[in-house]
Amino acid sequence: MILLTSREAEELDFKVMNKWKIKEETLMETAGSKAVQIIERNINLKNKSAAVLCGSGNNGGDGYVAARYLKNLCVDVVILENGHMEKQGQTSKHYRQIAEEMNIPFVYINNEKELKEQLFNKDILIDALIGSGLKKTLNNEKIKLIEVINEYKGTVISLDIPSGLSGTDGQMKPVCVNADYTIAMGTLKRGHVLYPGVEYCGKTIVADIGYPYIETEKYPVKIFTETEAEKTVPKRNRITHKGKNGHIGIYAGSYGMEGASLLAASGALYAGAGKISLNVTEKVSRSVKGKIKEVMVTALEDGEYFTQKSIEAALEKAMNYKTIVLGCGIGRNEETQKFVKEILTRYDGKIIADADALYAIADQHINLSECKAKLILTPHVGEFSKLTGKDKKEIERNRIDEAIRYAKENKVTVVLKGFPTVTADENGNAFVNTTGNAGMASGGSGDVLSGIIAVMNAQIENTLYDTALAVYMHGKSGDILLKEKGIGYTASELAQTVPYVRKMSENKK
Ligand SMILES: NC(=O)C1=CN([C@@H]2O[C@H](COP(=O)(O)OP(=O)(O)OC[C@H]3O[C@@H](n4cnc5c(N)ncnc54)[C@H](O)[C@@H]3O)[C@@H](O)[C@H]2O)[C@@H](O)CC1
Ligand SMILES: [K+]
């Protein structure tokens, strides 16, 4: 499902009206009527009273249409208006007139006190004040109205997007309606899924208003939905064998951080790897050997961490693997970083570079475009800041575009972890993930993800989809655990839950 900025949403409306000749009237009629269908499915409207707050833009136009359908359902409706109504477009005016002719009462709201009076005793407020046409920051009058809405105890349903919320960056300008439901018209906007916007939308439901699919699918940023997961999940046929399901090579762990290597291996194991080889140093191997029976452990060199001494052995072993995980818990010694550099520049398969490997890339100034390997980098915001030299806040403000920019510039796939995780590829396409929860912010969770990414990339053949699927599965495992156990579930449990998620997606195929 596509995810748009407000500007893209405006551009899409323009294309749909001018290229596809679907009239604005049709779009607005569909938007308002679909909104009421959705409301009816979610709320009992019997004997209810509702106020529809309309602004002067097309969001208000959707509101007039919704008011008509609510009235048809015998809801006691009043239309409240605020804004420069004289600037209203023809289509909104047209639907306003119909509502007037139906004898729906209209009240112009001059200030917050009047709004408060009108909302008293109303069960429902439909917020059609401002949609994706929000410009800059709200004026004082609108701020005060929104504050009244946020004190109101009834059910608030925002049309398209909560008024005051930016569809582009998910920021409040500087306040926004705190909705119980948001009915997104035609498509999701970034503001619906980015933080803090997502916290103000309540339950977000997309109303299909008839945008032609071939026009919408061209947009490069999408949400990785359950449907995508079902389509992407690798299907295994009966006559398969372990050699077909991907031999995963993991180069991870150092003395004191042995667990990271085991967690990456568990991620790969439970995601369904054919074979897993864990490459470590002698000292690490003593504590990891035998911990996971299915994993083959090799000590590449003596000592506590990787150095250039084992580079030839490491590269020789790498010839056997379908994908490689590099970096979890390997430490940041200069010699280890040189080991990472050699692998990245000489190996020509697919590498999932995580954690300390990302530090090596930054500290050793590794030029990614000179790497032979096809790279998937999995930074969290701190590691991404190290890679890009950008401030963490700046990255967070624009995590989707930052991930895309880096992926394109360096010709790599990036998984920018956090809320929400963004998987971007070198062609400028990206998937935003909406599974996962705060319980996953614990040590080892990233190591598990690296293992899952390695397996999906070994079993399917489209790096962006494979990687986004792995991110989806990892988050979904967390969601299952949050529901069943609550915060405090472990990274090992995250890995162990992956087969259930895989099964859920497979069964629906
Ligand atoms: N063809 C279309 O254009 C369609 C539009 N649709 C609806 O129309 C909306 C977009 O319509 P518009 O582009 O007319 O814009 P909006 O109606 O979202 O917003 C414009 C209104 O908000 C006011 N406003 C904007 N920023 C403000 C600020 N900082 N302080 C105070 N007032 C501010 C403007 O003065 C204007 O009255 C969508 O969100 C959706 O609900 C849907 O009906 C689908 C079709
Ligand atoms: K709105």
Task: Please sum up the structure shown.
The protein has 509 residues and is of the alpha/beta class. The protein has helices spanning 6-18, 24-42, 58-72, 90-101, 112-119, 140-151, 190-193, 197-200, 213-216, 226-232, 258-271, 282-288, 311-318, 334-346, 356-363, 381-388, 392-397, 399-410, 445-459, 463-484, 491-507; strands at residues 3-4, 49-54, 76-81, 106-108, 124-128, 155-159, 181-185, 188-189, 203-207, 221-223, 247-251, 275-281, 295-301, 323-326, 350-353, 374-377, 413-416, 422-424, 430-432.
Q: Please tell me what the overall shape is.
A: elongated
Determine the mean pLDDT. Answer: 96
Largest sheet: 10 strands, mixed
* CATH-derived architecture of the largest domain: 3-Layer(aba) Sandwich
Are any ligands bound, and if so which?
Answer: ligand NAX, potassium ion
Any idea what the CATH superfamily of the largest domain is called?
A: Ribokinase
Q: What is the CA-based Rg, rounded?
A: 26 Å
Terminal Cα separation, in Å? Answer: 18 Å
User: Might you state the CATH topology name of the largest domain?
Assistant: UDP-N-acetylmuramoyl-L-alanine:D-glutamate ligase
User: How many extended strands?
Assistant: 19
Q: Low-confidence parts, pLDDT < 50 over ≥5 residues?
A: none
Tally of structural domains? 2
Spatial order of the strands forming the largest sheet: 10-19-18-17-16-15-14-11-12-13
